[in-house]
Write a structure and sequence with these properties.
single chain, about 450 residues, alpha/beta, seven-stranded mixed β-sheet, five-stranded antiparallel β-sheet, 13 helices, binds flavin-adenine dinucleotide
């Protein structure tokens, strides 16, 4: 099928979306090439979901040790080795890199361990100067942490470096209000680092139900994270053994390290998009249609480089759909309305569907069911932590259109709730489901009384 091209399909970027797409295309019989300039598996495997979740497990032990006392346990002397954690994490990730390589090779994909850029609509230039051609090209180059522009901020680190710190600082300043920022604050705090968390906005986790951001802020403060809103670093400078941050409120902060987690930018600079005529939006993201096709007929893009829903399972699903459509004669559309997602903060958060605010805008009349309680485990552990669970229901159809939770096991619980919401479950069907007792999850099927509607606001 390759005819005058070297490849039927050439994938730039061996992350979540690229690897899946290349593999599926190969399995459908296409001649496939893939270029990866760093490590196979991309952000998720190397500097994202996977190491982050491993760090979260490490952090959780600290709480479990504390909570054990209320259950009668006396624990001996405890110590934590950051270096052991990093070494073990690196070993696991090297194993996963190998798994990805074998999966690609098994599907007959030719791997180029190098950077690739576009020369024209069908030609790819490889890092060593070689050129290859492809009938169809997929761009799956992901994103890169955004850095602030204030003076001295290059002295700080981003999530990329946080996974490879040689030693834990005594104090860290985390900047940002999104999920990556709050996750790192929780991890470092539990591992014994003093944390100051700065955010330019007024509430954490924009885009999530407001209740979740507010509850998380309360829990972070209970954990003695020094959380400051409407504050940024306006200047950063080196001191003898750390950094000095001048804050936007004029205060000075001495800190060991500053971690900027203020967003991510699609990695489209220097990719040769202009040579091929591929259009980008104002943020630098590649613009695609409903079938992930760019404005150029034979060039597609999936995942974070399109800056739509920046999550691994979404990139994977998009890459899979493109390969199936191009080479497997299968057509399927991805629903973006009810994508479950989690924040591995402490306590964790999970959500699916519409926030209360967005549901009111979309559906008009909605019923909101909410509960807040101390998790059963903490009745004996004594930990002062509250779980919040919330359902948002379209009054017109009784369909549950949003589910939100902060509390232990929220991500594990929400995956099942996500199936229900994708299936269009109504509140009556939630109510008819027998709860698993005693769990927190059962609250989702026993919420009986909606909150009173909010008082009308004066416009
Ligand atoms: C700290 C952190 C935590 C995260 N946690 C989660 C989580 O818990 N759950 C979740 O679902 N998502 C999480 N994400 C997001 C997730 O990692 C991304 O959504 C996902 O990796 C996107 O996949 P992708 O294929 O679009 O891009 P990527 O996985 O970023 O892959 C792109 C690849 O392209 C390569 N590349 C770039 N340019 C070139 C080039 N010119 N030539 C060759 N190769 C190139 C890059 O080196 C990279 O390997 C997290 C992200 C971060 C940063």
């Amino acid at each position: 099928m390759a005819e005058r091209y070297d490849f039927d399909y050439f994938v730039i970027g061996g992350g979540s979306g690229g690897v899946r797409s290349a593999r599926i295309a190969g399995a459908h019989g296409a001649k496939v090439g893939l270029a990866e300039e760093r490590d196979l598996g991309g952000t998720c495997v190397n500097v994202g979901c996977v190491p982050k979740k491993l760090f979260t497990y490490a952090a959780h032990f600290a709480h479990d040790f504390e909570d054990a006392a209320g259950y009668g346990w006396t624990l001996g002397e405890r110590s934590f080795s950051w270096r052991t954690l990093i070494e073990n994490k690196n070993r696991e990730i090297a194993r996963l890199n190998g798994v990805y390589r074998r999966l690609l090779e098994g599907a007959g994909v030719e791997i180029f361990d190098t950077r690739a850029t576009l020369e024209d609509t069908h030609t790819i230039r490889l890092g060593d100067g070689r050129k290859v051609t492809a009938r169809t090209i997929l761009i799956a180059v992901g994103g890169w942490p955004t850095r602030p522009s204030e003076p001295g901020t290059e002295l700080g680190i981003t999530s990329n470096e946080a996974f490879f710190l040689e030693d834990l600082p005594k104090h860290i300043t985390v900047c940002g209000g999104g999920y990556i920022a709050v996750e790192f604050s929780g991890i470092f705090k539990a591992l014994g680092v003093e944390v100051t968390h700065l955010y330019r906005g007024r509430s954490l986790l924009r885009g999530f139900d407001r209740d979740l951001g507010q509850s998380l802020a309360t829990e972070m403060m209970k954990q003695k994270i020094d959380l400051r809103f409407e504050t940024i670093i306006s200047r950063l400078s080196q001191t003898g053994d750390g950094l000095a941050a001048t804050l936007s409120d004029g205060r000075l902060l001495e800190t060991g390290t500053v971690l900027f987690a203020i967003g991510r930018t699609p990695m489209t600079e220097g990719l040769g998009l202009e040579k091929a005529g591929v259009a980008r939006d104002a943020m630098g993201a590649i613009v695609v249609d409903a079938e992930y096709k760019t404005n150029i007929d034979n060039i597609y893009a999936v995942g974070d480089v399109t800056n739509r829903v920046n999550l691994t399972p979404v990139a994977i699903a998009e890459g899979h759909i493109v390969a199936d459509r191009l080479f497997g004669n299968r057509s399927r559309a991805l629903g973006y309305e009810f994508i479950p997602t989690a924040v591995f903060s402490n306590p964790p958060i999970a959500t699916v569907g519409y926030t209360e605010e967005a549901a009111r805008k979309t559906y008009g009349a909605v019923d909101v069911y909410r509960t807040s309680f101390r998790p059963m485990k903490h009745t004996l552990s004594g930990r002062d932590e509250r779980t919040v669970m919330k359902l948002v229901v379209d009054k017109g159809t009784d369909r549950v259109v949003g589910a939100h939770m902060i509390g232990p096991d929220a991500p594990e619980i929400m995956q099942g709730v996500g199936i229900a919401l994708n299936a269009g479950a109504t509140k009556a069907q939630f109510d008819a489901t027998i709860g698993i007792h005693p769990t927190a999850a059962e609250e989702f099927v026993t919420l009986r009384t909606p909150l009173p509607p909010p008082a009308p606001t004066e416009d």
